[in-house]
Amino acid sequence: MVDYRDIEPPLKTLGLCLRGGFVDEDKTYILIGNTGSDIWKEFGPAYDDWIEPNPLDEWTKRHIDPIAADFGAEALYPFIGPPFMPFQTWAMQAEAVFPSPIGPLIHPEYGLWHAYRAALVFDEPVAGLPVREDMISPCEKCELKPCLVSCPVDAFVEGAFKFQKCLDFLNKNLEGSCMHNGCLARRACPIGAEYRYHREHARFHMDKFLGIDFG
Ligand code: B12
Ligand code: SF4
Ligand code: SF4
Question: Is the pLDDT of residue 213 over 70?
């Protein structure tokens, strides 16, 4: 039987980590993700091997497929779709993360500075699967909610992300703070401030966000 803790070492060398797991209909789902900019230390300098237009997705698949094969699991990815796999729903089952008012799930330690890169699906139980911690969302204790008042174009309206407003602003401010350092609304959140993405890492994601073909 595979032990949960045995999956961590090969991920660590990639700047990735385990993000909990859960059992559903006899299958065990284990989530893999990144917290802070650890992933950038491994992926960023490997730019000679980047395959555009989605180098992080290609890099992830290239490294995770063999790890999944070694452990006898199937690898699923958040970026393959549509239809996309319900990674945020899975994440809420796997670990103590909660919807934030601006969209991304918030983690009590990493704040908004984390993401999911893959899920390993096993046909059998996995030993040492951690139990999801019983916690409350940091947003419940956050009275001022600075994330909701920091966007220069009020892209967050009544719980929805008006991404076209955001994209229009970014396109007019390509050398602005959002593009260089990452979303101002996300950076306004006090939780997990020490995990904020480093400048180059943030810029990479903003460039990719801007380059999405919205049809
Ligand atoms: C499409 C997509 C987008 C589109 C959204 C378009 C649209 N209008 O839907 C665009 C391009 C705009 C986008 C932008 C961003 N995205 Co995006 N996106 C996705 C993607 C690929 C698919 C989403 C989807 O359709 N899932 C399918 C549904 C069925 O999945 P689901 O998990 O069941 O979704 C449910 C939950 O969201 C849940 N839910 C939401 N709120 C609440 C509240 C409660 C109370 C409950 C119970 C449930 C709930 O309801 C949804 C429907 O069932 C996901 C990856 C993935 N596979 O999920 C990333 C993903 C959601 N994105 C992510 C990120 C980080 C971003 C950006 C910050 C990108 C950036 N610039 O760096 C921005 C921020 C946008 C924002 N403020 O919300 C991360 C979020 C990580 C996290 N911490 O939660 C994900 C998970 C990708 C990843 N690799 O981790 N994204
Ligand atoms: S600023 Fe407050 S409400 Fe907004 S995401 Fe952070 S903790 Fe939640
Ligand atoms: S990136 Fe900038 S414009 Fe876009 S939602 Fe965040 S704060 Fe608003």
Answer: no
